[in-house]
Amino acid sequence: RPEIAQSNTMLDVGNRKIFSEEHDMFRESVRRFFAEEIAPHHSEWEKAGQISREAWEKAGENGLLGVNTAEKFGGIGGDFLSTMIVIEEQMYSNCSGPGFALHSDIVMPYLAHYGTPEQIEKFIPAMVSGKCITAIAMTEPGAGSDLQGVRTNAKKDGDDWILNGSK
């Protein structure tokens, strides 16, 4: 493989030594998916304010959701670089609307690491398939997406919890 400095652009598949031939083949399939399934509909989804459920399910069928999720949960068992390929190709397609990375690389790990075995068994396969679409809803007035700025808190009071905050 040529050194990265020999690459004309980042779009030159296979020119970065960190990627294997398997990664290159995966990249081609991901690029084709975004070109054929996402880009033609992106402006329509932007106007509607959401992408279609069908697009999520197609992404799941193509192994693009929860890329590093174990096969026993429906994932392809990909590595970190495979996950980065999906993110790179989505950005190269200029179709930022689908929140695949948020769903796969932020929400899914929360559940995988902190969920109960029952929650993991129920939700991870559905998330990998695109049948369950997730988001982060941790915000409040004045904090925006700065989770360190969120002031809402919960305190144990006997057998109850007292929740203080606003949404």
From TrEMBL:
GO BP, one annotated term: long-chain fatty acid catabolic process
Annotated coiled-coil segments of the chain: none
Required cofactor names: FAD
PANTHER family: LONG-CHAIN SPECIFIC ACYL-COA DEHYDROGENASE, MITOCHONDRIAL, MEDIUM-CHAIN SPECIFIC ACYL-COA DEHYDROGENASE, MITOCHONDRIAL-RELATED
Cellular component per GO, a single term: mitochondrion
InterPro entries for the chain: Acyl-CoA_dehydrogenase (IPR050741), Acyl-CoA_DH_CS (IPR006089), Acyl-CoA_Oxase/DH_mid-dom (IPR006091), Acyl-CoA_Oxase/DH_mid-dom_sf (IPR046373), AcylCoA_DH/ox_N (IPR013786), AcylCoA_DH/ox_N_sf (IPR037069), AcylCoA_DH/oxidase_NM_dom_sf (IPR009100)
Entry keyword set: FAD, Flavoprotein, Oxidoreductase
Oxidoreductase in keyword set: yes
Protein name (database record): Acyl-CoA dehydrogenase/oxidase N-terminal domain-containing protein
One Pfam family linked to the record: Acyl-CoA_dh_M
Start and end residues of each Acyl-CoA oxidase/dehydrogenase middle domain: 135-167
Organism superkingdom: Eukaryota
Any GO molecular function: long-chain fatty acyl-CoA dehydrogenase activity
All copies of domain Acyl-CoA dehydrogenase/oxidase N-terminal, residue ranges: 20-131
Family matches, as PROSITE patterns: ACYL_COA_DH_1
